[in-house]
């Protein structure tokens, strides 16, 4: 990953789930298309998927979090061919431990890695702020929704595929929210997870699109397609 520096204020923000990275004008060449690029060195590096073709001008970006015990490659695989069809960059992050930091005591390391990775992407690609989304499956869904509403001044959309909860913390902006959940989920039961998460977010005033499907703890392609529709080019 490029050598980057962060202010003390930005580093302090990581402890509450706040991100400092913001889209802007690229200052470095884009990475080659049609490939998955590791960002940084060593194990557990973020992966950036660059589709075979990108639209002219500003491009959409999706951050994707894996479920507990998984990894970025499997998280990307869950999206199928949607990133190519949507001409969308996908940034997949690896949790430091078996699952995400906030599920193990509080925000910190994983937020810092995301901030570094986002900053590196913004240095190379002109990301469209209107089509900047954060998503995840299972524990990654809980993490995506939690960070999405903590950073609604950065993310336009927060997507939770079969989430378990939303963490307490700061609320910034009003991102659009998408939640899907299987009615037969035995790992994160729908009544106390997907339905409850949606109800709580709506009570807080968020506009939530909520879809249920027949099945268990899985991510059907149709749910991916429905969620990523928000990354289509804006009308006009």
TrEMBL record:
**Coiled-coil regions listed in the entry:** none
Organism for this UniProt entry: Roseococcus pinisoli
Name of the molecule in the record: Esterase
Domain of life the protein comes from = Bacteria
Q: Which UniProt keywords apply?
A: Hydrolase, Signal
| Phylogenetic classification of the source organism | Bacteria, Pseudomonadati, Pseudomonadota, Alphaproteobacteria, Acetobacterales
Q: Which PANTHER family match?
A: FERULOYL ESTERASE, UNNAMED PRODUCT-RELATED
Q: Which InterPro entries match?
A: AB_hydrolase_fold, Plant_Biomass_Hydrol_Est
């Amino acid at each position: 990953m490029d050598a980057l520096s962060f202010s003390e204020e930005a580093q302090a923000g990581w402890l509450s789930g706040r991100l400092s990275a913001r889209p802007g004008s690229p200052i470095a060449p884009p990475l080659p298309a049609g490939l998955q690029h590791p960002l940084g060195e060593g194990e557990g590096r973020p992966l950036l998927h660059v589709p075979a073709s990108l639209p002219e001008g500003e491009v959409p970006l999706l951050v994707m979090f894996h479920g507990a015990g998984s990894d970025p490659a499997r998280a990307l695989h869950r999206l199928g061919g949607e990133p190519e069809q949507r001409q969308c960059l996908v940034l997949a992050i690896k949790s430091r431990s078996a699952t995400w930091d906030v599920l193990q005591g509080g925000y910190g390391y994983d937020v810092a890695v995301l901030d570094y990775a986002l900053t590196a992407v913004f240095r190379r690609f002109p990301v469209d702020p209107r089509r900047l989304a954060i998503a995840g499956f299972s524990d990654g869904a809980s993490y995506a929704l939690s960070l999405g509403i903590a950073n609604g001044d950065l993310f336009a959309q927060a997507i939770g595929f079969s989430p378990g909860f939303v963490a307490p913390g700061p609320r910034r902006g009003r991102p659009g929210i998408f939640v899907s959940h299987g009615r037969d989920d035995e790992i994160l039961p729908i009544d106390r997870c997907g339905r409850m998460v949606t109800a709580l977010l709506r009570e807080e005033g968020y506009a939530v699109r909520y879809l249920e499907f027949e099945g268990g703890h899985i991510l059907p392609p149709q749910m991916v397609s429905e969620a990523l529709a928000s990354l289509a080019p804006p009308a006009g």
